[in-house]
Design goal:
With 423 residues, the chain is mainly alpha-helical. The protein has 3 domains: 1-163, no CATH class; 165-270, Transcription termination factor 3, mitochondrial, CATH 1.25.70; 313-422, no CATH class. The chain has 23 helices and no strands. Helix 2 (33-46) runs antiparallel to helix 4 (80-90), helix 4 crosses helix 5 (94-114) and helix 10 (201-215) runs parallel beside helix 12. It is elongated and about 80 Å long.
Length: 423
């Protein structure tokens, strides 16, 4: 069976929507009950057998007697009403939706061709409107995906339209209920890796179990890790175990126990996206820049794993070290007592709070507790109101120190011109 790209005007004519221009109109309007019923009726008329039609009936549907009748509007592999439905629901042109349907229909034909001749049950070769509606409903109701997100999924993986609804429904329920992803996390994952919708749930379950087993994660830690990096589910179970075995060995060499590794990874899931070589480079650079011993560096990473994920060689991080040494006036080795320091904003938190504390005659604690506090607690510690502090910050930004350390535009320029020897 050959599958042809549908002509946009023929699809419009079939659905009776060309005159109104409703198909593909901007604004993202939903189908009214009447329009949805007309499209559904048209779909049933075009192919009474639906996706259950065999390849011979699909070929028959593709033939035209040249008389300009309803056969002229039939499309091999999918009901023309499907293109109208997708165009209206996703606010796209029906030519685009027809292209997606053609790709999906070719997948059905390929699957049918691979089927052994001895099979008595023939593979489906027709995409029908009812199942297209179910497929979109899975993304909308279970995942909570808006029309733009559904269009992104189909743009990247149009073969989704060739899936039997039970398959992606099982995947969606697995992600939301078993894995515990939020709607936003699940939607982000499926927009990036929509092919997961075609995977067997058992395969995904094996990957999750491999991730938990190889890192010794608790159920709560596992949920945080997958929630932080959902794309981990796109790797094979064997690949996950091999990669994490290497990570465990490297971490043990650095002095972290398996339990500590599980804590670090659950606190900073993006660590799993870095190669061992990158992690080693970041660790070595931390030791070099801050004059840490191996034990001190390991202690810093244990408390704040972010410093292992983010390179200390970025201009922004180096400026923070410059400020720590020359303004706060502490040796960089003292960062071992305040490992979260590099995670704070220099312009919005570190610099203004440090200068404000000094103006108020407050002592800077070794652990820099004044940086960890939220704004209400910080103001309470300094015995001022939030409004008073914010007014002071605005005035401070006009000073030489404020322009140097508290202005984002100036900070970007300074960061670009900063040189490591300034430390």
């Amino acid at each position: 069976m050959r599958v042809h790209l549908a002509d946009d005007s023929r699809v419009h004519a079939f659905c009776g929507l060309a005159a109104s221009g409703a198909v593909g109109a901007k604004g993202g309007r939903q189908l009214s009950g009447g329009r949805r019923q007309r499209i559904a009726t048209a779909g049933r008329t075009s192919s009474a057998s639906g996706r259950g039609s065999n390849s011979s009936s699909g070929a028959a549907n593709s033939r035209s007697d040249g008389g300009g009748g309803s056969d002229e509007l039939a499309h091999p592999g999918w009901e023309p009403a499907c293109a109208c439905f997708l165009a209206q629901e996703l606010d796209i042109s029906s030519a685009v939706s027809a292209g997606w349907l053609d790709t999906a229909a070719r997948k059905l034909v390929q699957d049918a061709a691979k089927q052994p001749a001895r099979d008595t049950l023939q593979a489906p070769t027709m995409i029908n409107l009812a199942e297209v509606q179910q497929l979109l409903d899975i993304l909308s109701s279970i995942i909570g995906m808006p029309p733009a997100g559904m269009a992104a999924v189909l743009r990247k993986w149009p073969r989704y339209l060739a899936c039997q609804p039970a398959q992606p429904r099982g995947v969606a329920c697995f992600l939301r209920q078993e894995v515990g992803l939020t709607a936003k996390q699940a939607a982000t994952l499926l927009r990036e890796k929509p092919v997961l919708l075609g995977k067997a749930v058992e395969v995904l379950r094996q990957r999750r179990e491999a991730l938990q087993r190889s890192l010794g994660l608790s159920d709560a830690q596992l949920q945080r890790v997958i929630g932080g990096v959902p794309t981990l589910l796109t790797f094979s179970a064997a690949g996950i175990e091999e990669r994490n075995c290497e990570l465990q060995e490297w971490c043990n060499e650095c002095g972290w126990t398996s339990a500590e590794v599980a804590e670090m990874v659950s606190a900073q899931p993006p660590l799993l996206k870095n190669s061992i070589a990158t992690l080693q480079t970041n660790f070595d650079r931390l030791v070099e820049l801050c004059s840490f011993s191996q034990q001190e560096a390991a202690s810093v990473v244990r408390s704040w794993a972010h410093v292992l994920h983010s390179s200390m060689d970025t201009p922004n991080n180096l400026r923070k070290l410059d400020f720590f040494k020359h303004v706060i006036k502490r040796p960089l080795a003292a960062l071992a007592h305040a490992p979260a320091y590099v995670s704070y904003s220099l312009e919005n938190r570190i610099a203004p709070r440090t200068y404000f504390m000094r103006e108020r005659g407050k002592r800077l604690s070794p652990t820099l507790r004044y940086l960890r506090s939220g704004l209400p607690d910080f103001c309470k510690q300094c015995r001022c109101t939030e409004a008073e502090y914010e007014e002071w910050v605005e005035a401070w930004r006009q000073t030489a120190d404020g322009r140097k350390w508290g202005c984002k535009a100036a900070a970007a320029t300074a960061a670009a011109e900063w040189r490591p020897q300034q430390l």
